[in-house]
Write a structure and sequence with these properties.
Layout: H1 2-28, H2 32-42, H3 47-59, H4 63-76, H5 81-93, H6 97-110, H7 116-134
Length: 143
């Protein structure tokens, strides 16, 4: 009888402790941005974490913080094609075309067939930017 009571008390204490931990985590992760910022603080050497934090910044139209996160993701994992694509589109959005071309080029060169749709978009945009860069000055504005 005493043993059953002790087990029940231990189980109840465990449930209360886990509920408290869950409540604390929910308070920390009140938004996707907060969650990925917390992940980046706790796991600063994970490429995926920085890529996803960059995506949160893009959703909030905070392109320069997004660019910084994508650059961190690529520095940590140079073969992270998703980060290259995301970096290229963010740079393109803010008008940093020559920098965008570098990441578009990496993505176009390395993207597997599973990413065919994104590869087509990236390669088409890269070609547009290359064509624009070759035009003589004054022959039209930037795309």
């Amino acid at each position: 009888m005493k043993r059953d009571l002790l087990k029940a008390l231990c189980a109840a204490a465990l449930v209360i402790a886990l509920a408290g931990a869950a409540a604390a985590r929910n308070a920390t992760w009140h938004s996707l941005l907060a969650m990925w910022e917390d992940c980046a603080l706790k796991s600063p050497n994970k490429s995926r974490t920085h890529n996803n934090l960059g995506n949160c910044h893009v959703l909030l139209e905070r392109y320069f913080p997004a660019i910084a996160e994508y650059q961190k993701a690529i520095a940590l994992e140079p073969g992270n094609l998703e980060a290259h694509y995301n970096l290229a589109t963010a740079l393109d959005t803010v008008g940093l075309y020559s920098q965008a071309m570098r990441s578009y080029e990496v993505f176009c060169r390395m993207a597997p067939p599973a990413l065919a749709e994104h590869k087509q978009r990236a390669c088409t945009r890269l070609q547009e930017l290359l064509d624009e860069a070759r035009r003589p000055r004054g022959a039209g504005g930037r795309p």
